[in-house]
Amino acid sequence: MSHDATLADLQAAFPDQVVEHPQGLDFTVVVLPDRLRELFLHLRDKAKLNYLSNLTVVDRPERFEVVYHLYSTIEPGPVFVVKVYLPDKESAHVPSAVPVWQSAYYQEREAFDMFGVVFDGHPGLTRLLLWEGFPGHPLRKDFVNRTYSFDEMGQTLPPEDQR
Amino acid sequence: MPERSLEHTLSVPETLLPDDLKRNVLLTTVDAVYNWARRRSMWPLTFGLACCALEMIAAGASRYDYGRLGMDIPRATPRQADLLILSGTITHKMAPQVLRVWEQMPEPKYALAMGACAISGGTFSSYAVVQGASQLMPIDIFVPGCPPRPEALINAFVKLHEMLLKQSVKTVEWYAKEPKA
User: Fold this and answer.
1) Which of A33, A110, A149, B7 would suit a FRET pair with B99, their CA atoms being 20 to 30 Å apart?
2) Nearest 5°: CA angle at A108, between A107 and A112?
3) pLDDT at residue B12, as a whole number
4) B100 touches chain A (CB under 8 A)
């Protein structure tokens, strides 16, 4: 199925969920987060986009954007980009894609670690690169990138007799 | 305190010795023998942190060869090492492991901060990097450079050996019966 056919199919199946189709280098569709799980299952099973290659977050002044890069290994072709806008930056929530694509597991953990976006339904949403107790989410634009002393970083050392 | 080499301490006036001992006994001090041996078998820990580690490896390889200084066995476990070469950027993520390795080393032990990153954080004034190894442990010698050349590292080893020769078992902390207040 070509990407144009996939888009038409998607608009027919989820008429109120596809909000935007920006023109750019890659084939991009902006959808609402409300029925994301069903929409992803539709893309995976009907449109054969069975491989989530990349998942990341963009911090815009007015919103977070979660970006999904989808490919098909059954009918190889160019990338199919799905974006979800999250205007509520204070408590950004989006349904997890792990039940649909296993490869979302670590990428969602990293996105949570770096941006603080919560992926609802993720089986183990903890920080991936940083440690529990790290102050903040460093890839957010409002994170102040100053230097920190070792004591500020909230690292826990093992007790002295166990080192 | 002036450097006391083993050869220097051997010049004992011969009149002090009975005749039958003159060709059989050497007199020296505990410090001289002890430091002489320690200086010539200071084993570094096999521990590279970042790009400076490549210069450290070059310093150990055949062209520069710090094995000439008796350091030719980089130990694979901190429990057998005397010298921790902090060769590169210390990230906050790595800092607990660096501390752990340091605390596993038996005394007497020495720490060498190699390169701008280990000295002060270097060019990385960011949330991810410890701004100098001094935040973690006492550093005996700093080697500036980005990265320092192998000659600079070997020069630091020589300076460290000179420092070591000036230590005495009577005054160093790790032989004290009571810890210093």
Assistant:
1) A110
2) 120
3) 55
4) yes
What percentage of chain B exceeds 70 in pLDDT? 88
B42 contacts: CB under 8 Å, gap ≥ 6: B69, B70, B71, B82, B83, B110, B157, B160, B161, B164
pLDDT in tens, A142-157: 888 888 888 888 777 7
CA distances to A55, A58, A87, B74, B155 from A63, in Å: 17, 8, 4, 53, 55
The DSSP letter of residue A159 is P
pLDDT tens, A118-129?
A: 999 999 899 999
From the list B96, B121, B127, the residue facing A155 with the nearest CB is B96
Residue in this structure with the two tokens 């580690």, named with its chain if needed: B53
A140 touches chain B (CB under 8 A): no
Nearest CA distance, B93 vs chain A (angstrom): 7
Question: Taking every pair of C-alpha atoms in chain B, what is the biggest distance, in angstroms?
Answer: 71
Identity at B82, one-letter amino acid code: D
Place of tokens 């992926």: A119
To the question of pTM greater than 0.80 for the whole model, the response is no
Which residues does chain B have within 8 Å of residue A146's beta carbon, measured at their own beta carbons?
A: 125, 127
Which chain A residue shows the shortest CA-CA distance from B79?
Answer: A163
